[in-house]
């Protein structure tokens, strides 16, 4: 007869299951409660961060300090709530695990940024007069920049590390609301890393580059985006800037006719010659075709020094669209017979002037007057904070390139977007599209581009696909309605109103093209290596209203990476970039 009790083994199993279930219920309750608290803390961090940005922009450091303390408190709390062993253990649960891991990673990044970057930056900001940034009477006080450099260096290192970790979070594996939050945080950290990195670079470089340790001379090359080149546009007006003890003056102006074509080209890299033959080495205006500004900068300096006999300390290249950002800071501007606002300056300089002033030498004179007036207004009438904002926006759009003849400075510059070097693949993989006009006129005022990337697998191989659509939006009657100087009037073998463009697509480092087509058909292309990047170049001729699409697939090392970003030539209208579903062209 049975005594009603379960066998020992079954009792043990029931107790074990009961303990496990009880533990799971408690664990779920534990992480639920802590998760609610962590999410609330992170929401407070996001809200306070938005307000902090406004406070810093207004120069209200007292409010910024209070907000930073609040951010640090909530970030530390969120980190504490998501770093215990139980929360970490839930990171291994199938399907749900990535969500727990993502929240923990976001909280840890927020805590590190608040403690090791935000506080040092605000302390450094206290050393500067945000109302003037040391700018008085056209002279910049350079001493504070040297004082804040160490703090900014630490903050920049923290943010760079945080950016790398943020980019490593797999947002695609999380639930949609969390994925959006991760992407927003990633974008915020990237922006902060860029801004603080730029501030650190400025603090490290500005004192010496602006003549604190001796006078400096820089060639300023102004690029015209209506005739595209790799780094923005053809070189038009050129000037020499003198910097001494923080004062910047414009001491000499020149134009392209002052630099005759060379019988013997200056030396160029194999990749530049492969893509553009020796034209950049012969013609001053084509030097910005060179894809890498660490090569273009010294070449521009050489041409200036050979022509005028003045050694220079560096080269600064800016494009015409940058004037739009600067007029946001200076307000309306008058030069020669023209008055412009930020809404009208680009259309005047890149389109209307060619009808209003047909003589090219007179155009050059207007461009020189515009450059002088803009520099004077920027250093004398613009609010310093607005000026810094305009320069930061221009740098973010890749509209400023700087090369220094001093090795230590160039080593710092070349690692930033300001240096204009072909990027290296690290936490992000880069692909790029370069546009170079060969129409010989100013028709790129009427061109547009869209660029998309697709990441996946084709034929069992990791694949990165780059698609470029190029359009000539000129009016149908462009041949007769636009000035001959704009259309080139067939002088270089291009029918008036049409555009002829060299479009160069480069892929990830180490990857090679597995498929190349234009409008679905294969055609001959020019190839080159930009460092370890394979580049292919099409020559595209379009009549008004026509469009063409180039598709290049890359396979091999570096291809198929989820975190792929697109670099491109700065244009009048920034190309729309997107990520599309991969459809294997091969």
Keywords:
16 helices, 23% strand, 586 residues, single chain, five-stranded mixed sheet, alpha+beta
Low-confidence stretches: 23-27
Number of strands: 19
Largest sheet: 5 strands, mixed
| Distance between the first and last residues' Cα | 77 Å
Q: How many helical elements?
A: 16
The structural class is alpha+beta
Q: Which strand order do you get reading across the main beta sheet?
A: 5-4-3-6-9
General shape: globular
Q: Could you state the oligomeric state of the chains shown? A: single chain
Radius of gyration: 28 Å
Mean pLDDT: 84
DSSP strand content = 15-25%
The share of residues in helices is 40-55%
How would you portray this structure in words?
- The protein has 586 residues and is α+β, with helices and mostly antiparallel strands.
- Helices cover 45% and strands 23% of the residues.
- The protein has 16 helices and 19 strands.
- It has helices spanning 8-57, 61-81, 85-90, 97-125, 143-167, 176-209, 270-276, 279-282, 293-308, 322-330, 345-356, 360-380, 384-396, 407-413, 478-481, 484-487, and strands at residues 135-136, 139-140, 216-224, 234-244, 247-255, 314-319, 333-335, 338-340, 400-404, 429-437, 447-458, 461-472, 499-506, 511-518, 526-530, 533-542, 547-556, 564-568, 576-579.
- Strands 5-4-3-6-9 form a 5-stranded mixed beta sheet, with helices on both faces. It has a 5-stranded mixed beta sheet with strand order 15-16-13-10-18, covered by helices on one side. Strands 14-17-12-11-19 form a 5-stranded mixed beta sheet, with no helix packed on it.
- The longest helix is centred in the N-terminal third of the chain and has 50 residues, at 8-57.
- The protein is globular, with a radius of gyration of 28 Å.
- Mean pLDDT is 84; it is low at 23-27.
